[in-house]
Amino acid sequence: MELFRLSRFWVPTLVTAAISLLTYLVHQKKTALPDKAQRGRRSGSRSQPRQAGQLGVVESIWTCPGTSRAMEQQGSVECVAGKGIVGDRYNMDITRGRYSNTPEPGRQMTLIAAEGMELLADKCHLKIGPENCRRNVVVRGLHPLSQLVGREFRLGDIRVFAHRVSVPCMYLEGLTKQKGLFEEFYCDAGLNCEILEGGTLCDGASVELLPGQPDLGRCVVGRAWTLPALFVRPRERSATERQQVLDLRKALEAAHLSATGADKTSTLKKLRLFDQTHGRKNGAWDGGSPQY
Q1: 34 pLDDT more than 70
Q2: Three-state secondary-structure class, residue 212
Q3: Reading across the β-sheet that carries 199-202, which strands appear in turn?
Q4: Which of 6, 162, 243, 257 has the greatest number of C-beta atoms within 10 Å?
């Protein structure tokens, strides 16, 4: 009888305590999710290193002979160490067709993940396709490619090193006539790689991540791309990051105003390229989302 009386007191108390604890945990999860999701969308976020031996496959190969020319699909291409892909506008032996006068080694071969383009189509109903993405090699099995920066990997017999992630240009949005593509595609637009060992690369070749930890000290990028804010999706940049982007633009403008002779032409090209890439139309731009 005594046990029965005690149970009448303790059971409701324990139930109430359990409900309170469950409510607290659910509340904590809900309040933590937005911040976690926000960090996950930023291109500068870090995750666990990829494991060596992870396999992917080359789905298609594309080259472009010059600026604003259509991408051309290739069954195979010749890759030259330290130079690039034979016949592509970013091959170091080609003097015309690049948007930059100071090519980075990472522009020798650009990659893009098939899964990223599919995700863009499924979630945002924006279709880009490998013929429009302006990247050389479409791979599957290593998405997201942003986690490969500072790593070496093989595509068939070709060995490459990833210097930095690629970001899209507003030119692409105009080319495909799909408003919003620039922002949605920003953090999944590919990978810039240097060719360390050349040879023939064919459709269907395997892609293998090589052993080793990311070595960011090996990464060589243009001066503008040392600014971390440029790798954050424009609409997600903080006020400080937007100001950093605006300061970079001011520095480019100052360099142009002080330049003389041939340097005047070069600095003007950099200034116009910056505006075209980021969607700046006038002084009202705040360093974030593009102006329409």
Answers
A1: no
A2: coil
A3: 84-85, 76-80, 199-202
A4: 162
